[in-house]
Amino acid sequence: MRTFRSLLTFLWIALSVVPMGTLLLVFSLAVNADRLWWWFAQPWLFAAIFAIRRIGGVRYRIHGLENLPDKDDNQRIILCPKHQSTWETFFFPSMSPHPLAYVFKKELLYIPFFGWSMARLNMVHIDRSARSEAWNKVATLGAELMDRGKWIIMFPEGTRTPRGQQGDYKSGAARLALATGARIIPIAVASGRCWPRRTWRFIPGVIDVSIGEPMALADGESPAEMMARVEDWIESEMRVIDPLAYPL
Q: Which terminus of the chain is less hemmed in, N or C, by CB atoms within 10 Å?
Protein backbone atom coordinates (compact mmCIF):
# COMPACT_ATOMS: atom_id res chain seq x y z
CA MET A 1 0.00 0.00 0.00
CA ARG A 2 2.83 2.40 0.82
CA THR A 3 4.39 1.86 -2.61
CA PHE A 4 1.05 2.38 -4.35
CA ARG A 5 0.39 5.62 -2.47
CA SER A 6 3.86 6.90 -3.30
CA LEU A 7 3.42 6.06 -6.98
CA LEU A 8 0.04 7.77 -7.06
CA THR A 9 1.47 10.90 -5.46
CA PHE A 10 4.37 11.13 -7.90
CA LEU A 11 2.01 10.47 -10.80
CA TRP A 12 -0.11 13.44 -9.72
CA ILE A 13 2.97 15.66 -9.40
CA ALA A 14 4.32 14.60 -12.80
CA LEU A 15 1.02 15.06 -14.62
CA SER A 16 -0.03 18.30 -12.96
CA VAL A 17 3.26 20.10 -13.58
CA VAL A 18 2.73 19.93 -17.36
CA PRO A 19 -0.43 22.08 -17.63
CA MET A 20 0.61 24.36 -14.78
CA GLY A 21 4.09 24.83 -16.21
CA THR A 22 2.65 25.48 -19.67
CA LEU A 23 0.32 28.16 -18.34
CA LEU A 24 3.16 29.77 -16.42
CA LEU A 25 5.38 29.85 -19.50
CA VAL A 26 2.64 31.33 -21.66
CA PHE A 27 1.71 34.01 -19.13
CA SER A 28 5.39 34.83 -18.55
CA LEU A 29 5.36 36.49 -21.97
CA ALA A 30 2.99 39.17 -20.68
CA VAL A 31 3.19 39.43 -16.86
CA ASN A 32 5.98 39.88 -14.33
CA ALA A 33 7.55 37.16 -12.22
CA ASP A 34 5.80 38.19 -9.00
CA ARG A 35 2.39 37.57 -10.54
CA LEU A 36 3.61 34.26 -11.93
CA TRP A 37 4.62 33.32 -8.39
CA TRP A 38 1.22 34.01 -6.82
CA TRP A 39 -0.87 32.78 -9.76
CA PHE A 40 0.95 29.56 -10.61
CA ALA A 41 4.06 28.61 -8.63
CA GLN A 42 2.80 28.88 -5.07
CA PRO A 43 -0.64 27.31 -5.74
CA TRP A 44 0.96 24.33 -7.50
CA LEU A 45 3.52 23.81 -4.74
CA PHE A 46 0.79 24.07 -2.10
CA ALA A 47 -1.20 21.46 -4.02
CA ALA A 48 1.87 19.20 -4.20
CA ILE A 49 2.34 19.37 -0.43
CA PHE A 50 -1.40 18.67 -0.03
CA ALA A 51 -1.09 15.60 -2.29
CA ILE A 52 1.95 14.35 -0.39
CA ARG A 53 -0.04 14.68 2.83
CA ARG A 54 -3.37 13.27 1.70
CA ILE A 55 -2.13 10.54 -0.63
CA GLY A 56 1.39 9.88 0.58
CA GLY A 57 0.50 10.12 4.27
CA VAL A 58 3.23 12.66 5.08
CA ARG A 59 1.98 15.33 7.47
CA TYR A 60 3.92 18.20 9.00
CA ARG A 61 4.15 20.24 12.19
CA ILE A 62 5.59 23.77 12.36
CA HIS A 63 7.29 25.19 15.42
CA GLY A 64 8.29 28.87 15.67
CA LEU A 65 6.07 30.16 12.87
CA GLU A 66 5.93 33.49 14.71
CA ASN A 67 9.62 33.98 13.84
CA LEU A 68 8.76 34.53 10.17
CA PRO A 69 8.15 38.22 9.39
CA ASP A 70 4.70 38.86 7.94
CA LYS A 71 3.89 39.84 4.38
CA ASP A 72 4.01 43.58 5.12
CA ASP A 73 7.52 43.41 6.59
CA ASN A 74 10.05 44.54 3.99
CA GLN A 75 13.26 43.61 5.78
CA ARG A 76 15.76 41.55 3.84
CA ILE A 77 15.57 37.86 4.76
CA ILE A 78 17.64 34.78 3.89
CA LEU A 79 16.12 31.43 4.81
CA CYS A 80 18.64 28.70 5.71
CA PRO A 81 16.92 25.33 6.09
CA LYS A 82 18.36 21.91 6.85
CA HIS A 83 18.23 19.87 3.63
CA GLN A 84 17.32 16.19 3.83
CA SER A 85 14.86 15.66 0.97
CA THR A 86 12.93 17.25 -1.88
CA TRP A 87 10.00 17.88 0.46
CA GLU A 88 11.33 21.16 1.85
CA THR A 89 11.98 22.56 -1.63
CA PHE A 90 8.22 22.30 -2.20
CA PHE A 91 7.13 23.21 1.30
CA PHE A 92 8.77 26.58 1.97
CA PRO A 93 7.49 28.31 -1.18
CA SER A 94 4.02 26.89 -0.48
CA MET A 95 3.72 28.67 2.88
CA SER A 96 5.97 31.72 2.58
CA PRO A 97 4.35 35.17 2.93
CA HIS A 98 6.90 36.51 0.41
CA PRO A 99 7.98 35.21 -3.01
CA LEU A 100 11.12 33.10 -2.63
CA ALA A 101 14.19 33.02 -4.83
CA TYR A 102 16.20 29.83 -4.58
CA VAL A 103 19.94 29.72 -5.15
CA PHE A 104 20.31 26.51 -7.14
CA LYS A 105 22.54 24.73 -9.63
CA LYS A 106 21.81 25.61 -13.25
CA GLU A 107 21.37 21.95 -14.25
CA LEU A 108 17.87 22.02 -12.73
CA LEU A 109 16.79 24.39 -15.50
CA TYR A 110 16.91 21.49 -17.96
CA ILE A 111 14.07 19.59 -16.25
CA PRO A 112 11.06 19.86 -18.60
CA PHE A 113 8.33 22.22 -17.42
CA PHE A 114 9.57 22.35 -13.81
CA GLY A 115 13.01 23.73 -14.64
CA TRP A 116 11.69 25.87 -17.47
CA SER A 117 9.22 27.46 -15.04
CA MET A 118 11.98 28.14 -12.52
CA ALA A 119 13.85 30.01 -15.23
CA ARG A 120 10.91 32.41 -15.59
CA LEU A 121 10.55 33.13 -11.86
CA ASN A 122 13.68 35.27 -11.39
CA MET A 123 15.66 32.96 -9.16
CA VAL A 124 19.43 32.61 -8.84
CA HIS A 125 20.84 29.74 -10.88
CA ILE A 126 24.59 29.28 -10.68
CA ASP A 127 27.39 27.29 -12.26
CA ARG A 128 29.07 25.49 -9.37
CA SER A 129 32.19 24.87 -11.42
CA ALA A 130 32.88 28.64 -11.64
CA ARG A 131 32.87 29.60 -7.98
CA SER A 132 33.95 33.24 -8.19
CA GLU A 133 31.45 33.98 -10.95
CA ALA A 134 28.76 32.10 -9.04
CA TRP A 135 29.32 34.17 -5.90
CA ASN A 136 29.27 37.45 -7.84
CA LYS A 137 25.93 36.44 -9.33
CA VAL A 138 24.51 35.49 -5.93
CA ALA A 139 25.61 38.80 -4.38
CA THR A 140 24.41 41.02 -7.24
CA LEU A 141 21.17 39.28 -8.12
CA GLY A 142 20.39 38.45 -4.51
CA ALA A 143 20.49 42.13 -3.54
CA GLU A 144 18.32 43.08 -6.53
CA LEU A 145 15.69 40.47 -5.73
CA MET A 146 15.57 41.39 -2.04
CA ASP A 147 15.08 45.04 -3.03
CA ARG A 148 11.98 43.87 -4.91
CA GLY A 149 10.54 42.15 -1.84
CA LYS A 150 11.75 38.60 -2.38
CA TRP A 151 13.33 36.41 0.25
CA ILE A 152 16.39 34.39 -0.68
CA ILE A 153 16.49 30.73 0.31
CA MET A 154 19.80 28.87 0.47
CA PHE A 155 20.52 25.39 1.75
CA PRO A 156 23.73 25.91 3.74
CA GLU A 157 24.84 22.30 3.31
CA GLY A 158 24.50 22.64 -0.45
CA THR A 159 23.02 19.22 -1.02
CA ARG A 160 20.75 16.73 0.73
CA THR A 161 22.22 14.94 3.72
CA PRO A 162 21.03 11.60 5.11
CA ARG A 163 18.87 11.63 8.21
CA GLY A 164 20.96 11.91 11.34
CA GLN A 165 24.00 13.25 9.54
CA GLN A 166 25.52 16.69 9.13
CA GLY A 167 26.87 18.18 5.95
CA ASP A 168 29.53 20.81 5.45
CA TYR A 169 27.95 24.20 6.13
CA LYS A 170 29.01 26.77 3.53
CA SER A 171 29.36 30.47 4.41
CA GLY A 172 27.53 31.79 1.32
CA ALA A 173 24.38 32.83 3.17
CA ALA A 174 26.37 34.73 5.80
CA ARG A 175 28.46 36.40 3.11
CA LEU A 176 25.28 37.48 1.38
CA ALA A 177 23.91 38.77 4.68
CA LEU A 178 27.07 40.83 5.15
CA ALA A 179 26.86 42.22 1.60
CA THR A 180 23.17 43.13 1.77
CA GLY A 181 22.35 43.75 5.43
CA ALA A 182 19.92 40.83 5.43
CA ARG A 183 19.04 38.68 8.43
CA ILE A 184 19.29 34.89 8.37
CA ILE A 185 16.49 32.65 9.63
CA PRO A 186 17.81 29.17 10.52
CA ILE A 187 15.37 26.30 10.03
CA ALA A 188 15.58 22.69 11.21
CA VAL A 189 13.67 20.20 9.04
CA ALA A 190 13.25 16.51 9.88
CA SER A 191 12.05 15.49 6.42
CA GLY A 192 14.43 12.55 6.09
CA ARG A 193 12.29 10.34 8.29
CA CYS A 194 9.35 10.53 5.85
CA TRP A 195 11.02 11.13 2.47
CA PRO A 196 14.61 9.87 2.55
CA ARG A 197 16.92 11.24 -0.11
CA ARG A 198 17.36 9.33 -3.37
CA THR A 199 14.08 7.49 -3.06
CA TRP A 200 10.60 8.02 -4.42
CA ARG A 201 8.82 6.16 -1.62
CA PHE A 202 7.27 7.99 1.30
CA ILE A 203 7.21 6.77 4.89
CA PRO A 204 3.89 7.95 6.37
CA GLY A 205 4.42 10.10 9.44
CA VAL A 206 5.03 13.66 10.60
CA ILE A 207 7.78 16.03 9.46
CA ASP A 208 8.72 18.56 12.11
CA VAL A 209 9.82 22.01 10.95
CA SER A 210 11.35 24.38 13.51
CA ILE A 211 11.91 28.02 12.55
CA GLY A 212 14.48 29.98 14.54
CA GLU A 213 14.61 33.67 15.34
CA PRO A 214 16.19 35.92 12.67
CA MET A 215 19.92 36.37 13.14
CA ALA A 216 21.76 39.57 12.29
CA LEU A 217 25.49 39.83 11.73
CA ALA A 218 27.05 41.05 14.97
CA ASP A 219 29.57 43.91 15.05
CA GLY A 220 32.98 42.62 14.03
CA GLU A 221 31.61 39.14 13.30
CA SER A 222 32.92 37.36 10.22
CA PRO A 223 30.66 35.40 7.84
CA ALA A 224 32.30 32.16 9.04
CA GLU A 225 31.49 33.02 12.65
CA MET A 226 27.90 33.88 11.80
CA MET A 227 27.52 30.65 9.86
CA ALA A 228 28.83 28.74 12.86
CA ARG A 229 25.96 30.22 14.88
CA VAL A 230 23.46 29.16 12.22
CA GLU A 231 24.94 25.67 12.12
CA ASP A 232 24.91 25.32 15.90
CA TRP A 233 21.26 26.34 16.10
CA ILE A 234 20.10 24.04 13.29
CA GLU A 235 22.04 20.99 14.42
CA SER A 236 21.02 21.45 18.06
CA GLU A 237 17.38 21.84 17.05
CA MET A 238 17.53 18.75 14.85
CA ARG A 239 18.28 16.71 17.96
CA VAL A 240 15.17 18.18 19.58
CA ILE A 241 12.71 17.55 16.75
CA ASP A 242 14.17 14.21 15.60
CA PRO A 243 15.95 12.67 18.61
CA LEU A 244 15.74 9.10 17.33
CA ALA A 245 18.02 10.03 14.42
CA TYR A 246 20.79 11.12 16.79
CA PRO A 247 21.64 8.35 19.26
CA LEU A 248 23.55 9.38 22.35
A: C
